[in-house]
């Protein structure tokens, strides 16, 4: 039987921003962020990654763009990765698969006008209260992202909710997948997804050795790719864990 294959999200799963960690934790910086909100790992997260590497193949599955992923300073033991919400698949040499890029670029360009109109509306209505941008890969748009510039959690929550309501009231978003988690609101063409990219990758690398496939993530939007796996894992306090707690009417943080 082969080793495990781990498909794992990164942000808020294997590491998180400094301010999201409890005060007093021993932290190791593991990313470089252009806005200064660098990612950090605590000892438990470091231990998890070490355990994953010791028992299998670790493949990142992340919303991070190619550029943002290049600023993750971790050794996953492989150069394979799924980036930009599934728009990019890196092969074993760390090179983007050209056929998959062409496929997702065509999808992204079909949605480009809508994404640019959405960005213009956020800029016009929110001004300096928010920032928005279109994530591009190899010259093609792949998804649209909005974040609030407020620091208070309640102000962020209200702002993200207002942005989502504004966009849905002005545009037909039926061809986009909306994701909201903390200070992150994103819209991705439905045909671009982590799940589709994972399925494509697994068709090329998985054999009949019986290697368990394990999906790891924190967000509800990770569940579709995790659903391809034999087992799933999620951090305590994540969106997924909170949903399970609500459904079971149990406090899972005790």
Explain what you see:
The chain is an alpha/beta fold and 254 residues long. It has helices spanning 43-55, 66-69, 98-110, 112-126, 153-170, 194-205, 223-226, 239-248; strands at residues 4-8, 16-17, 28-29, 39-41, 56-60, 81-83, 88-90, 130-137, 140-148, 176-180, 185-189, 213-216, 231-233. The strands form 4 sheets. A 4-stranded parallel beta sheet has the order 5-1-12-13. A 4-stranded antiparallel beta sheet has the order 8-9-11-10. Strands 2-4-3 form a 3-stranded antiparallel beta sheet. Helix 7 links the parallel strand 12 (213-216) and strand 13. The longest helix has 18 residues, at 153-170. It is globular. The N and C termini lie far apart (37 Å). The mean pLDDT is 94.
Shape designation: globular
Report the CATH C-level class of the largest domain: Alpha Beta
**Arrangement of strands in the largest sheet:** 5-1-12-13
Distance between the termini: 37 Å
Number of domains: 2
By helix and strand content, what is the structural category?
Answer: alpha/beta
If helices are DSSP runs of H or I spanning 4 or more residues, what is the number of helices?
8
Radius of gyration: 18 Å
Q: What is the arithmetic mean of pLDDT?
A: 94
Pick out the low-confidence regions: none
CATH homology group of the largest domain: HAD superfamily/HAD-like
Just name the CATH architecture of the largest domain: 3-Layer(aba) Sandwich
Number of strands: 13
Strand content: 15-25%
């Amino acid at each position: 039987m082969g080793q495990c294959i781990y498909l794992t999200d990164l942000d808020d799963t294997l590491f998180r921003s400094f301010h999201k960690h409890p005060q007093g934790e021993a932290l190791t910086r593991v990313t470089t962020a252009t806005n200064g909100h660098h990612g950090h790992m605590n000892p438990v997260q470091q231990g998890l990654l070490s355990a994953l590497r010791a028992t299998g193949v670790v493949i990142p599955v992340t919303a991070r763009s190619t550029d943002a992923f290049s600023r993750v300073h971790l050794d996953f033991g492989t150069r394979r990765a799924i980036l930009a919400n599934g728009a990019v698949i890196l092969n074993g040499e760390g090179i983007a698969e050209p056929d998959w890029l062409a496929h997702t670029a065509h999808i992204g360009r079909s949605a480009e006008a809508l994404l640019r109109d959405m960005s213009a509306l956020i800029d016009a209505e929110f001004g300096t209260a928010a920032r928005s941008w279109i994530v591009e890969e190899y010259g093609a748009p792949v998804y649209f992202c909005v974040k609030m510039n407020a620091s208070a959690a309640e102000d962020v929550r209200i702002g993200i909710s207002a942005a989502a309501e504004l966009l849905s009231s002005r545009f037909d978003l039926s061809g986009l997948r909306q994701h909201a988690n903390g200070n992150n609101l994103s819209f991705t063409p439905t045909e671009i997804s982590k799940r589709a990219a994972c399925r494509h990758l697994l068709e090329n690398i998985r054999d009949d050795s019986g290697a368990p496939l394990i999906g790891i993530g924190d967000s509800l939007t990770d569940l579709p790719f995790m659903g391809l796996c034999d087992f799933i894992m999620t951090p305590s306090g994540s969106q997924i864990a909170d949903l399970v707690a609500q459904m079971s009417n149990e406090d899972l943080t005790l």
